[in-house]
Amino acid sequence: MTVNVAQGLVAPTAYAAPNGEAGRRFRPAVWLAALFLLLVLAWAVVPSAFTSESPFDTDVEAAIQAPSLQHWFGTDASGRDIYTRVVFGARSSLLIGTGATALALVAAIAFGFAAGLGGRLTDGAISRFLEVVLALPGLLLALIFIAMLGPGVATEIVAVALGSAAGYAWMVRGQVIAVRNSAYVHAATALGHGRSRIIVRHVFPNAMRPLVVLATMGVGQSIVWASSLSFLGLGVAPPAPEWGAMLDAGRDFVSTAWWLELFPGLAIVGCTLAVTVLGRHLQRRIEGRLT
Amino acid sequence: MSTPVLRVEDLTVAFAPRREPVVGGVSFDVAPGECFAIVGESGSGKSVTARTLLGLAGDSADVAATTLELQGKSVLGNRDRDWRRIRGRQVGFVLQDALVSLDPLRTVGREISETLRLHRFGSRVRRCERVLELLATVGVPEPELRARQLPHELSGGQRQRALIASAIALDPPLLIADEPTTALDVTVQAQILELLAAMKDRGTGLILISHDLSVVSRLADRVAVMRHGRFVEQGPVTDVLTAPSHPYTRTLLDAVPATHRKGSRLSGVPAPPIDPVAVTHARDEVLLEADGLVKHFRGPDGVQRTAVADVSFTIGVGETLGIVGESGSGKTTTAQLVLALLAPDEGAVRLRGAPWSEATEAQRRPRRREISVIYQDPLGSFDPRWTVRRIVEDAVPVESYPGSAARRQRAATLLADVGLAEEHLDRRPLLLSGGQRQRVAIARALAPEPALIVCDEPVSALDVTIQAQVLDLLGDLQRRLGLSYLFISHDLGVIHHVADRVLVMRDGGIVESGTAAEIFTNPSDPYTRSLVASLPTPAPQPVLGGQS
Amino acid sequence: MTARRAFPRLGARVAGVIGVLWGAATLTFVIEQLMPTDPAQTILGGAGAKPTPEQLAAVREQYGFDRPVIVQYLHYLGGILRGDLGTSYIRKQPVSEIIGQQLGSTLTLTATALVAAWLIAVVVTLLTAHRSRALAAVGSGFETVLAALPQYWLGIVLLVLFAFTLHWLPVVGNGGPEGLVLPALTLALPLAGFLGQVTRDEFSSAMEQPFVVSARARGMSDFGVRWRHALRHAVLPGLTLSGWALGSLFSTAVIVEAVFVRPGLGRVLVDAVTSQDMPVVVGVTLFVATIYVVANLLVNVAFGRVDPRLRSVAR
Questions:
Q1: Which of A1, A10, A185 should one mutate to test binding to chain B, selecting the residue with the greatest count of B CBs within 10 A?
Q2: What pTM did the predictor assign?
Q3: Which of A242, A272, A212, A243 has the alpha carbon at shortest distance from A33?
């Protein structure tokens, strides 16, 4: 939308106060989010540092017990300690979440840049292909993929990546095109810089910027999808500890044993929230430096 | 003597966290049928003053005054409920750029009738009639059709008229116009000013806010010059503009390029000494030649438009060719053709006799350093992540300055040449002012040691005093380095000041060309004549500072 | 813009939609062909059964698996144009019949959720956008939390809260409206969070525009400006996302139906995935894709009229 440049002379409306670069207020939410994610990361990397038990230890006599000092999060139908299972479950969730997002982004960057930088034919072909893939909702694509190859961790990663890659690719393409048509790229051309130099120094860094935010929030979304698939019985096979599978297993007892659903659910929600908060904070910082 | 429509005494407006008041101790009256103008640059507080007169300064504004009376009734201490009865009925408000000052999603008729509806004017049918009456009064042709259209479907001038119609719908005794003509082409500006003058004649009191002295001289009876929230000078228009008493007013008047011929200085900055021996250029040598350029575009609705139709010109070494035209005249497209950022559909551009537009990009690349460009909005032409230093270093040619130390040094020299202090070098352009950013752009344009700089509206977005400094800088650089300029602007006054020869463009074609003197004193083409005539110039000032 | 010029563009758009659908159909066909398991095996009872080679050959002939790929492809496309999406390997029913049976339930759920999501988003925006910083932070935070909640967890929480604890709503729907409330809310709330964020940003941006000052200068109240001017601008980007929202809702309905044990396309789909009943999987996916693409088209056409800025965006 073109804005008349002389509008710079319009007086500021007396509403919102601008932050400018001085908007670095202490935001407790961001610190909490970062700490939580660090904790989950630690759970994934060194789970035995946080719990002495094994997630597979069953103890039928202690089945379905409410949270207590012995079992912080209670026990499930087979008497396994839920806290331990939540801690051990962090690994597969993070693995799938980050793995799927990384894979999706790699594909998205490849397709997006090819389309954005390529000529009409390349762009046209890739765009049509992306439109078709985008017509199929992401979760369904993931489901189809799993239907093809059966459940499993690697399959889940690829499936979730497949579901989100097309959306990312579309955004990358849009960004690349926007940067390619920007005044500073034109100015660089006018200076006599070569095409590859412009791509490396201008197009790539500027087009990738918003991706950082997307990737951060994408991890949260991937974790949710992965656990959704497990919840539907299509993910990691039991008795492996996986948050979504735990929620599925606890469904039947939810009227009496609320702890079976609450804690794994909180883990997922916590991750997603933390990742979203961080992502938006990143977005604010990036935009604050550019506008 | 009738009661003044507005009486303001010692008005002060401050915003909560800041200690300095944005408006301090302002006093003036407006009588019916008179136009009072407030002139100032951005940040002077003139718009805040205008909004305070409507109670729209904002919730965090602290408004205090000895007197603030509208038609004899005090409005100090009014709450929003009281103000709502006054706004629209006793005071009308016209902003600039109707494209964003009218709701783009509502029809023009709806916007105008909103004033009527809010103040419970008659029945629905009566309101529709009134809207049509108003559109006719402000001079919008085919009112029934226009009332049903969205703002972007009208031309710029018609939109602004419609905006004025919505402000005068209830015939308020006072009309405040905040930069009402700034977004418009020069010819349309003149028409809007006539419309406002007609309202003045009908007895409406008018407050005109503007940064443009020439607009003010055409419409206002009395004027106040505002700076840092205070009136530095106030009085009848002819007095203030011909014999100003305050130095700031004099600076403003000096800075207006329209009345100063090329070579005179606009700003107070003294000219740097020029070493006459170092400057040798053959003025008759042709640097750039454009021959029969034609460029078509296909619009989003599929219709083909001719942006540039058979344009030919030459630019000599060390000379400035000015292209003047209104929006849509094709001047920017011409600039892009000269820069070879666009390829012409027909015709060719030659640089120093060798093919330019017809060469391949690989052939052009090593020669690109001979032509640089400066844009209207320099910020968009900088990579958003880079600092000032990096932006200029990037433009220094590697062949002439091998090694990063040499380039660094060169960049620092360039930035000093354009008058940027050391402290700005490692900042991002975002944090600089408009004038400083344009200096960075000029430094970058100088870095490859070009022969020609294409200047596409380089000063249009700047305050007039800053504009003066930048124009002086460009003039100094031209004299010292023997640069040629292709200077594009919609502002005739600027072109008059900077150009040696002038091209007048309209609808993609050249309607007239000649030396600056010929065009401005003796235009032959009727379009050029209307442009020159509609340029509101302040009364000639024989006794002003300008050294030549 | 005259009607004469509008029609060719509409035609081009419809052609584009058909193109995308054809592409989707081809893609799903390719996926079907890439299945590692033998469809004949699946038809005859899945992995557990041990059919004889003669039985397998008979099935292959009956279903046409032994014909060349191109022929199968054309047969498949032809079937789609007639509305025949093939026959389920497991249920031995035409897929279109299966979809028809379950469609109503899912459609009701999705439509209700979309409406509810919009209502919530608009109300929260009107109440909290562009006001004091504290209020805006509350509204924004609320929306962020909502948008981040995974559907199934939210569904379970709502179930526990409203059905098991408070007994306000039934645990398992019996087809009546009360059974719709919780599932629809579960679908609606995260979408409301997302829509709310988009709407709020646009609302704040609209409130900063000069036309708001013009409106206030005519005597309009702050609430009037929000309701009559800013809101219309605010909902535009969300509305253009409605096509996407509908598709997204359909796919998350899969999960919600599982949580609330509701009959619908979701259940059908999950069962089909587990048993590798490809015609059903592909059929349902294509169906959802069609709805998504057609909805997008309708939205673009309708709002190209309302928002002049959209018209110049070629898509």
A1: A10
A2: 0.81
A3: A272
